[in-house]
């Protein structure tokens, strides 16, 4: 008879907990990926370092989602778009809705790609190559770039939307003198929003310039190494060639 207990423990080898319970069988997927202990998992890779940067963006995007959502729900629903204040208030709602949706999209795309990339990294000896093919897939790359672009666009939009909120709050006092105090703050917020756009575009421009410079200096070196390798192979082949 086959032994059904672990030696010296009295514990069954095949426990009923090893099988999926009845209610859990109705779930879409109940099997996980294989766990292979590869020493390479303990070392950092290029993909892991890039994902660490995206993790920071996802955290900030979650904060922006909460801030924009709180601002939307703090607005009054009885606005009259036939008045100037009603138009400004409605514009603020539209801007905050855009900020909310853009940051939420960033969170969904970045978090899901991080989750899937880390899972592929730990699939086994070929985990890095498989994760690399997923990370550099054109569809995945496009979604990631769009999500990051939306995140950086949402930041100045949020500041601009706050200017509408300032006008709306000052207008509640029904005092022209109090409302006049809001316009300098609005101007400062709009100026800050424009400055954020300029800073973001400037940094992206410098990044693209430095990346192009790195590739330009990298190409001659790689071509030289390839030419040396090909010449060495041809010389060695001619030496051992037998007619």
Description:
The protein is mainly alpha-helical. The protein has one domain (42-222). The protein is built from six helices and no strands. It has helices spanning 46-74, 84-121, 127-135, 138-171, 176-180, 182-240. Helix 1 runs antiparallel to helix 2 (84-121), helix 2 (84-121) packs antiparallel against helix 4 (138-171) and helix 4 (138-171) packs antiparallel against helix 6. The longest helix has 59 residues, at 182-240. The protein is flat, with a radius of gyration of 29 Å. The protein starts with 45 loop residues before the first helix and ends with a helix. Residues 239-243 have low confidence and may be disordered.
Provide the succession of SSEs: HHHHHH
Portion in strands = under 5%
* SS class: mainly alpha
* Main sheet characteristics: none
Separate helix tally = 6
Mean pLDDT: 79
